[in-house]
Design goal:
Mean pLDDT: 84
Helix content: 40-55%
Number of strands: 7
Radius of gyration: 29 Å
Oligomer: single chain
Amino acid sequence: MFLTRRHTVSEIEYTAIPTQDPTSQPDILTTSRDTEPQRSFVHTLPLELVCLILSAIPDPESLFSVILSCNYFYQAFNHAESTIVHHVMMNQIGPDNLPEAITAFRSAELPPPDFENEQTAVAFSEFLQENVHKRPSLETWSLTTALALSEIHDHVNYFATRFIAETSGNGPIRTTKTPRTTQEINRFRRAFYRFETFSNFFHTLYGTIWFSVRDFERQFMSPFAPWEIDQIACAHDFLGRTILPAFNDVAEHDVGFGEMNIEFGNTVQIPGIQYLLTLGLEELRLFATTSTYEERCELLARHVDSLSDMPILCDILALGYTGQNANNCTLREVMQKGIDSECIRTPLFHDNDPGPRDIWQWAYWEETGRKWVYQENREDLLRWGYVLWDKARLDESRIFQRPWKDPYTPEKIANREYEASCQRDIMEKSWTQRERVCRLGGRGWWDFGNESEVQWKVRRQGKGRSWSVTSNCSMYYISSSLEGARDQLETMELPWEEEEQFWLP
C-alpha cells in the first residue's frame, strides 16, 4: 500500500490506497536469497526516533513528501504532528521570524470592514493586540497551516533575496566585503513579513472613511521602534520600485488607462502603486515577474477601479511615529538630556545587534520627534536598506565617520519641482491624446508619435465584408490649426451602427 493526499478546503486528508496486489504488505523487502520476507530498516527504528528524523526535515513540502513515501513515517507523523510540524517550521523560518510569519498568515484572514457594525472595530483592535502588539505563537500546529506559512515564506525570501542583491550596488555598503550574516538576512525577511501584515491590514481599510484609517494607523504602529518602522518603509519602497516598470508600461501607454486618467510616474507614492502595494506579496510577485505588455494589462485590469484611490500606505508610514514626548525636541537633545527611554519606543523584536538603532540615530540626529521616520529626504537611505545591516558592516563602510547631510538643497528641491511639473504636463498631454484615440475606437498600446500598435474598432457592413476604417494605422485629419483639429475631433460622429463589431490588430 502507499499513501496519497487529497486537498479539502479546511484540511489535508491522507488515504491508504491498495496497490495492484491487495495481499502485499507495506515496506516488505524480498531478495532471491531470502526464504522469508524481511521488514525494511525503517521499521526497526523506535517510533520516537522516527519522529526526531521527521522533525529535522527542512521544510513542510519535504515533510509532506516523506510521510507519503512510507506508511511508518506517516504513523510517526500522526503520532506527534504538532510537535514535528513546529520543529520543521523552526527549521525553515527560524525562531526570530516565526512570530512575524504567523502574524502575516493571520492578517490574510481579516474580514472586510463594516464600520456601521461596532464589532468590526473591536475585531480589528483585538487582532492588533493579539498579533501585532506582541509576538504570537501557535498552541497547535498542523501541516495545512505549515504549508500556508511556507508559501508566504517563499514570497518573503524571493523579495528579500532580490533586495539584498540590489543593495550590493547601492549606498556605502557596496564597498564592504563581509558575506551577509544570518542576522542580516533574517532582518530583511522580517521587514517583508511585517510589510505583508501591514499591507493585508490596511488593504481591508482601503476606500473606507479616512478617520477610521487614521485611528487604526496609530494602533498598528504603536508597538514599533522608529527604526523598525523604517525597516517596513525599506520594504515598502523596494516593492514599489520593483513593480513600477510593469505598472508604467500599462499606465503610460494603454489607451484605456489614458482615457481613465490613471497616473504614472517615477515615484512609489502615485495612487496606483500605493493601491497595488496593499495586495500582498503573492500578487506583487506576479507584477515583478511579468515581462509582456499583455500579461501586465491582464493583471492590472483586475484592479482598474481602485488605481486612482487616495494613497494611504506612504502617509501611514510617515505619520506612524509621533516621537512620544519629543515632538518638539531633536534626537540629539533627547540623548543629551538622557530621556531617550521616555521618548523612544522599545523595539518589538529584541535585536542583539545595535546596527539598526545606531544608524537610525545617525540619520535623524537633528530631527524632532515628528520627523523620526520615513522622511522624503531619506529616500536614498531607504534604497540601500540602511536600518537592515549589522553594526560591523556599517562600521566597515565608515558611514559613521561623517554626519548625515541633507541631499535636498534648495537648488535640488527646485529642480525636483520643475521635473515634477514637466512630468505632469507630459502625463496630461498623454491622457488627452489617448482619449482622442479611444473616442475613435482605438485600444491597446500607444505612445507619442507611434500609433502602429493601436487596435482599431471595425464593423462588418450588411452581409458583405467591407470595412469602415483601416485597421492598425494612425488616423490623420486635415485642419488649418491645432485648435481647429481639436474642434473637429470633439464634434466628429463615428459611423458605428448597431451591427457586429470587433477588433483588428
